[in-house]
Amino acid sequence: MSSREKILEAVLQNQPEKKLLPEISILKRDDRDAVPGYMQVMKAIGGSVYLVADLTAVKILINEHFDIAKRVVTSLPELTGDYELLSPTVAPHTYDDIELAVLRGHFGVAENAAVWLTDELMVQRIIPYICQHLAIVITAQSIVPTLHEAYEKIGQAEYGFGAFIGGPSKTADIEQALVLGAHGPLSMTVFILQ
Amino acid sequence: MKQSHNKNHAALAEDFIKDDDHVNWHDGALWYIREKRDIASKQIPEWEALRETASKIKDNVISNLHEYLLQFEANLKKNGIKVYWAADAGEHNAIVYSILREKGIKEMVKSKSMLTEECNLNEYLEERGIEVINSDLGEYIQQIDNEPPSHIVLPCIHKRKEEIGELFHEHLGTEKGLCDPTLLTRVARKHLRNIFLSRRAALTGVNFAVAETGEYVVCTNEGNADMGAHLSEVQIASMGLEKLIPKKMHLAIFLRLLARSATGQPITIYSSHYKKPREGQEMHLILVDAGRTRQLGRPEFRDSLKCIKCGACMNTCPVYRKSGGLSYHNTISGPIGAILAPNLDMKKHADLPYASTLCGSCSNVCPVKINIHEQLYAWRQVIAKEGYAGNAKALSMKAMAWTLSSPGNFAKAGKAGRWFLSNLPFVVNNKFNPWYKQREMPDGSQDSFSEWYNKNNENGKKK
Question: How many CA atoms lie within 13 A of B316 on its CB side?
């Protein structure tokens, strides 16, 4: 008998009497204060967040806050006049030297400031992790209050890889001292389009 | 690997508590994390409903595991992920080795996975000429010190920054005496980035696996799982059978609970949903039993399989905080480790269910409401019955059984006890009585409670 069969047989023999799934719709919230709530949490976890009118305002803020003399990449066609458009076909390793990546996110989650991205928006899966600094553009009306609404929104959407990203990479492994910028980006900035 | 197989929890804890200042720091640091968990949980009005729901979802998983495993397997295949089944650690390690060998890969980067620690995967692969590097900073530090992790979320919480600075000096060539956490982290970031960029294979653990969709979720704060996975041509995931959840929407509940319970964060920085290999990449997933089906068959203990590995029970445990994770001589330490370990090897881990005051704090913070302290108590019964309780404990248990078997015996024993305490205190205050270590015995009272009650009741009666 293969291990697969052995394991499955042991599971069948040992699992207790079936119990039903609980109702989970009671856990949802209303979304009245989603935008200010989102901004507050993002700041609290060490990220930056700006409420902006349009992509021109985004560009101005980027030029002000980042070293754009270095390599800046983006997936937004509107920004390619200024920054390099990401290529889906080159080896992911070639993006090791990017200073800033500017990506679009599907939506934000107010309770934890996370943004949902899928590989389609990342162009290459490695981009939001390998860059030194990460900037993400979302719209104000996309922000949902909690993860319950977030998964409802994701629904059965197809992707090969998807991620919630909520802040700059961090570690507190050395004596519980918080350090921003473990292996991923040193900073995360979210631009909320009104 | 540095290990102390021969010492039990009490003896290892004794080594740990020799440095008073350090123990107090360790105690305080973990309690601080527990407090952060409290603050985070109190910001969620429906927190208790979340815990209850999570626990019930896991009840459903445990009782339908067969069906969910088949569904998950079918969906993984549909997504283009290759599936393997491993009955034990040996089989798991052999599978990983065969995947790497087929591709001629000699170096692999690994993100945090307690399961592969449990399987001693690194040692196994190293013996076969494959180098593995742990990329989680805490696990990397533990690896260069040749020591297992002492905490499932904070692997080197028992180490001081000076020790870590010394390790970096030795292994990464930093300046002697450098121990600033930010500077050390920067050095590790640079060093490990080269590792990520040059490794063709990456292995991750699994936090949650969704039966409905055949995807799995990996949670990190550092981004190390993603750095390894997205730069690799071969991605391997190892998971215990119990990591399954039924539907994607259930992730909302578990992700809301996990980081808040673990560190007080609203969510881990990265919650990565891996579903299909990218162009030019292979994905492999290994489902591992290694004792889990046996635990499933133990009605009193099967709820331990609900664990989502947040570490909250460790941070709150007064024994863990004062004795350190390594004193549990098991990959998973603390209260949850003490109810999982006896299932793996009852004789070797017979001491662990006793490494607790049964105060119940672990059960109160557990995000999936495992009755940890009750299981600790239940394991003690099983261990004593199976004859693993140790001679001293077995003898005193027998004496206790005799004492409690009749009121006459109880009165006699009480009288004797009080007489010894008053007249020959050294009979109890000696090194053969471990309870007396670091405690003072009280003065013996003149009367037993019954004697006192009878006397006072007679005096007090005003009939």
Answer: 26
For residues B287 and B239, give the distance between their C-alpha atoms in angstroms, rounded to a whole number.
5
Tokens read off for B219: 């949670």
Burial code (b: 16+ CB inside 10 Å, e: under 16) for B369-378 equals bbbbbebbeb
- Band (pLDDT 50/70/90 cuts) for residue B402 is low
Q: Is the pLDDT of residue B461 over 60?
A: no
pLDDT class of B463 with cuts at 50, 70, 90: very low
The answer, yes or no, to whether residue B306 has pLDDT greater than 50, is yes
Measured CA to CA, the distance from residue B200 to residue B370 in angstroms comes to 39
Q: How many CB atoms lie within 10 A of CB B407?
A: 9
Contacts of A148 in chain B (CB under 8 A): 249, 252-253
Residue type (1 letter), A192? I
Q: Tell me the per-residue pLDDT of A129-184, one tens digit each, with 9 for 90 and over.
A: 999 999 999 999 999 999 999 999 999 999 999 999 999 999 999 999 999 999 99
pLDDT digits (tens, 9 = 90+) for A99-128: 999 999 999 999 999 999 999 999 999 999
Quote the CATH superfamily of domain A32-193: NagB/RpiA/CoA transferase-like (3.40.50.10420)
Contacts of A165 in chain B (CB under 8 A): 269-270
CA distance A64 to chain B (A): 25
CA-based R_g, chain B, Å:
25
- Residue A13: closest C-alpha in chain B: B297
Q: What is the pLDDT of residue B1?
A: 73
Cβ contact B241:B288 at 8 Å: yes
B-proximal residues of A, 24-53, CB under 8 Å: 24, 26-27, 41, 45
Nearest chain B Cα distance for residue A153, angstroms:
10
Domains for chain B: give ranges and CATH numbers: 1-43+299-389 (1.10.1060), 44-290 (3.40.50.10420), 404-460 (no CATH)
